[in-house]
Design brief:
There is one protein chain. By secondary structure, this protein is mainly alpha-helical. The protein folds into two domains: about 100 residues; about 35 residues. The longest helix has about 100 residues.
Length: about 140
């Protein structure tokens, strides 16, 4: 009798095991069907997505090339501005170093040019008046 009870328990355990394996295989089959649907969807969506990704990469490369060119142009411009700044600084140092001597020389030259132009204008107007028959002063 003990052997029969053990046999019945083994048969029930085997039946439960077979039932669990069948249930698991059914779930695996459902999962595979869903996976197949997902793979079909991905196959339809992935090529356009990859094409867009490729185009985006090309655009980013083109933009980075344009940015590199812009930086090079800006670098040239900034070097030129730096050179102008250095020249202004040198002139400032020259004027500051000479002090009032350079400024007074500059004002003297300007005053001389004004005086010379006044004399030339006066003589030109006198000679112009004499040629037109006006009496000299």
């Amino acid at each position: 009798m003990l052997i029969e009870i053990a046999g019945i328990i083994a048969a029930v355990a085997f039946a439960v095991l077979v039932g669990y394996v069948v249930y698991t295989l059914i779930q695996v089959r459902k999962t595979l069907v869903e996976l197949q649907v997902v793979l079909v969807y991905l196959n339809s969506q992935l090529p356009p997505l990859l094409k867009d990704l490729r185009l985006m990469t090309e655009n980013v490369n083109a933009l980075s090339e344009q940015a590199r060119d812009g930086v090079e142009h800006a670098s040239v411009f900034l070097h030129a501005v730096g050179a102008v700044g250095e020249t202004v600084e040198q002139m400032h140092g020259l004027v500051k170093g000479q002090g009032e001597g350079l400024a007074s020389k500059l004002f003297s030259v300007v005053a001389g040019v004004k005086a010379a132009s006044a004399v030339v204008k006066e003589r030109f107007s006198k000679s112009h008046d004499e040629r037109n028959g006006a009496s000299p002063r």
